[in-house]
Amino acid sequence: GFRYIPFNDVAALEAAVTDKTAAVLLEPIQGEGGVYPASEEFLRAAHAICRDQGALLICDEVQCGLGRTGRLLAQEHYGVTADITCLGKALGGGFPVGAVLATEEVAQAFAPGDHASTFGGNPLAAAAALETLRTLEEEGLIANAARMGVYFREALEKLGAENSLVAGVRGLGLMLGLVLKIPAKRVVALCQERGLLVNAVKEDTLRFLPPLTVGTAEIDRAVAILRAALTAAGGKEN
Ligand SMILES: Cc1ncc(COP(=O)(O)O)c(C=O)c1O
């Protein structure tokens, strides 16, 4: 079975992993959990603890992978290579497909058909995934995500410095969270009325996952709507 430990708690991880542990599974940046990046210390410790105990490190990059954070894989920011990496969502550019990446060593344990699903490996999904990967690379979308991630984060931080309802900004690249001092769902609704779709991943956190093609004009527009929504929710400009 699984044992859960608090995220970014190296001591808890050390205590939980033994030579009987098969694997440690984590998201380098938690998405649905509230846009929490792993600390560099935690991800590196996870890698070292797994190596020392003979466990595999599995990174779920279904949400944070494929250019979202400004690198092909989020784990690259940490200088860590997981034994197994899970991909999905963006991989097919909208077409349903997932993939499991493994190091050469771990891949030796699989033979064709061992890790199967009825439609797994079908040619249409494989073609969609290849085309998506080609587009990410050839259209410079990962570099765009890195640049726009910095631009968007700075704009959110500026908004936060100006507005009394903002508690902080979290995230990496184009995977950003805005922490509020009021229920995030109220602001989701106010944004929606003004033409901006965002969602609340926690009671107090809005999550932004814009397309990797986003540009500065769209970010400016989104931040202007957000500012108006916060004002409508009673926020005061400092
Ligand atoms: C990090 C992460 N892993 C896995 C999944 C599950 O993906 P799917 O719905 O494609 O099975 C999700 C879906 O939100 C996710 O965010």
TrEMBL record:
TM regions (residue ranges): none
GO molecular function: identical protein binding; pyridoxal phosphate binding; transaminase activity
Entry superkingdom: Bacteria
Co-factor requirement: pyridoxal 5'-phosphate
Pfam short name (any one): Aminotran_3
Keyword vocabulary terms for this entry: Aminotransferase, Pyridoxal phosphate, Transferase
Keyword Kinase: no
Annotated InterPro entries: Aminotrans_3, Aminotrans_3_PPA_site, Class-III_PLP-dep_AT, PyrdxlP-dep_Trfase, PyrdxlP-dep_Trfase_major, PyrdxlP-dep_Trfase_small
PANTHER family: ACETYLORNITHINE AMINOTRANSFERASE, MITOCHONDRIAL, AMINOTRANSFERASE CLASS III
The protein, known as: Aminotransferase class III-fold pyridoxal phosphate-dependent enzyme
Source organism (scientific name): Ammonifex degensii
